Amino acid sequence: MAASIFRNAGQILLPVKFAISRRLCLASQSPPQLHGFSNLDSLVSAVITAVTSCASISNCRSIHCKVMKSLSFSHGFIGDQLVSAYLRLGFTKDACNMFDELPDRDLVSWNSFISGFSRRGDLSNCLNAFSAMKLETGVEANEGTIVPLISACTETRALDIGTYIHGFILKFGMLLELRIANVLINMYGKSGYLDGASGLFEAIPIPNLVSWNSIIAVHVQTGKPEEGIGYFIRSRRAGIKPDQGTLITTLEACEELGSAKLAEAIHGFLFITGLDSNLTLATGLLSLYSKLGSLVASQKVFGHIRNPDSIAWTAMLASYGVHGKGKEAVKTFKLMVKEGVAPDHVTFTHLLNACSHAGLLKEGRAGLLSDAYKLIISMPMKPNSGVWGALMGACKKHNNIELGKEAFDNMLALEPLDSRNYLSLSNMYSSAGLRKEASEVRGLMKKRSVIRIPGSSCIEHEKRIHRFVSGDRSHPLEEEISKKLEELVKKVRGSGAWARTEFVLQDVDDEEVREDMINKHSEKLAIGREIIIRDTKRFHHFSNGSCSCRDYW
DNA sequence: ATAGGGTTAG
């Protein structure tokens, strides 16, 4: 009973931790009672679970000492739990030493050992443990062994090893286990083998919710949002009740498609099912509307959130930022702090971005990059890849290659598989004329099989979505589209809107690129009504002959 | 009903 209470202790850690340490002291003070193991075993295991979920090594060690003093850790799964805790906290050596000493290693011991490495993305140690396990007599792998192994392959994009394990799975007839099929769908899908993922999915007799969520997610995340939505519709027909994960993914698909209509349809669905009061989904929706260009809609959604947490506040702040409303972003930040919600590194990243877009920061305007660097280094929390990305963007703008490279290295250590990181470094080199370095970066990307999803633009017309990638000539009306564009550009030139913006692009040498960029910005100014349009970084609101960015871009 | 990862917000 006590154990089941403690098992759910993750959410209310502080009081629980206190209660636990008192119970433990009592236990170790009265050794005679320790011979009735079953109660204490379950208590101690719950203790370890609770303590490790707050990720503190000192807590873990003190528990370890107390357990060692009061009874042998060889009993039950206490040893397994401690090994797993050490691994999770990054004390690999301690964990391995302890694992070697465990006298009765059963299947669960091995599985949690492998799982510990997998969580840290340590594929080679996963494989070492797996080989060692096969040598140990009487222990046969099951789905608890395979799932973390495949997961580690997915994380590290080690598709060759993953495929080998797939072979192992087939050999031992383990594909019938649904959880294994689901992680395989995830692995093949995330590695860009959507056919493989779909093939596996179709072979499942009765896919469950996770199967559906996985097949939807891998399509949406690898540049196939239409297909993802297709699977979502199929899941509805199959009578599957979607959960938070399903709908977050469909919101992501709306973003990819740039479809406000689909977003509204899903918003309606959320409303009907009552899921619109789900904080995660409301936050996702808010952010989506903002990304689709409607700041007003995102404000509305935020207004309906009862107790916004730091993530929701940050989403609202970021919305103001990408819409060029730097002052509103700062206001939101102050309000958030006033409400007693603690900002974190992501909040600060968006705040910095919002300020630099709006030209509010001296650092942004004058290119005082080393100051920005110092700011990042002295931040109270560990900078994430977004912070480094913001610095790198500034470095590119001001041609500071050296600092840009440093930002890249930091960024890559945190997000080694995000193609955007590689591309922004490569772009920085290209725009500085360093072609050799640029192609090296692209080579590195290829070598690590980082998948690049080409950027594209969509427009919704009469219930159909038309998608264009750069230089795309595949649209059936391609000729007419090109003609119309040329016509527009000519009109703009004649209107005089041309000269106004030209000075902005002094740092772009390539005449063609320069002209193109100016066209994109100025042609919207020539038209009378409000137009909202997105560039690679944020939104521009054009009305009454001026843009919300005040030509700061 | 059994210690162990199936997918998924800023």
From TrEMBL:
Top-rank taxon, per record = Eukaryota
The answer on whether this UniProt entry bears the keyword Methyltransferase reads no
**Repeat keyword on record:** yes
Biological process (GO) annotations? plant organ development; RNA modification
* Pfam families in UniProt: DYW_deaminase, E_motif, Eplus_motif, PPR, PPR_2
**DYW domain ranges (all copies):** 528-553
Q: Which family does it belong to?
A: Belongs to the PPR family. PCMP-H subfamily.
- Entry's InterPro entries? DYW_dom, E2_motif, E_motif, PPR_At4g14850-like_plant, PPR_rpt, TPR-like_helical_dom_sf
Name the Gene Ontology molecular function terms of this record: RNA binding; zinc ion binding
Sorted keywords for this record are: Repeat
Stretches forming PPR repeats: 208-242, 309-343
Q: Can you name this protein?
A: DYW domain-containing protein
